[in-house]
Write a structure and sequence with these properties.
Blueprint (H helix, E strand, L loop, with lengths): L7 E9 L2 E10 L3 E6 L10 H4 L2 H4 L2 E6 L22 H14 L6 E5 L1 H12 L6 E5 L21 H10 L8 H12 L5 H12 L16 E6 L7 H8 L6 E5 L6 H4 L1 H21 L1
Parallel strand pairs: 3-4, 3-5, 5-6, 6-7, 7-8
Antiparallel strand pairs: 1-2, 2-4
Amino acid sequence: MGEIEPITGRYVRCLVQGRPCRVYFEEAGQGIPLVCLHTAGADARQYRHMLCDPDITSRYRVLAFDMPAHGKSYPPQGWAGEPYQLTTARYVDTILAFCDALKLERPALIGCSIGGRIVLELARAHAGRFRALVGVESADYQQPWYDTAWLHRGDVHGGEVCAALVSGLVAPQSPAQYRDETLWQYMQGGPGVFRGDLHFYREDADLRGKLDAVRTDLCPLYLLTGEYDFSCTPQDTERTARAIAGAQVTVMRGVGHFPMSENPSRFRQYIMPVLDDIAGRAARA
């Protein structure tokens, strides 16, 4: 009791597609910048365990931000009455605007789920901006298995439906405390935000046949997928990697779709070798 965690929370003002945004982020550590992207409908609390890990923060400046309209980040100015809808262009611009606002020079970046999908787009079109990219639960496309009409209705509690929808994606081995924390974040999302994120995931970001020109010699690409993830299966990730020369694939045993928040100690076993490799490359450069 009384322990104060080493996380600092702040706001930075960004211009995303010409619109001012006040973006909340948390950071800890020093060294190589490591930008962390949360899953659809959630927020950057998913990365709190990495932010509190001294073996990571002794070498990395870990920065986890809430996308506009998520967590503690407000929607863009003038949003009232606008339906929220995430597109590939909007997502990329948000990430680059955040990195530019903090003057991050070639950061490493990790993203999970929708963040894992946008990692592939960054590798395809913006690899020169990053020193390494890590896609967690990442694939070029997944066939939708859910009905988004339930995610924004006046007669249904949207947060509870969101949590119920994703609850099966948590592996059965995950500790109850972390499972509950992961689902709680989904219960707190803004109206229509999860549904708007899934527009990107379901309709706007089909990367099949578009990744063969990715240059992993210029920007290493690491893909890690949980064996219990039936949304982005290991087979989806392995299929994606076959189109990308040099992509490194790991299937994580005993975790599902939210490894960094649902089972942080198990995820640590898989992410630490990746972070060691990125730091080693930086030291040799």
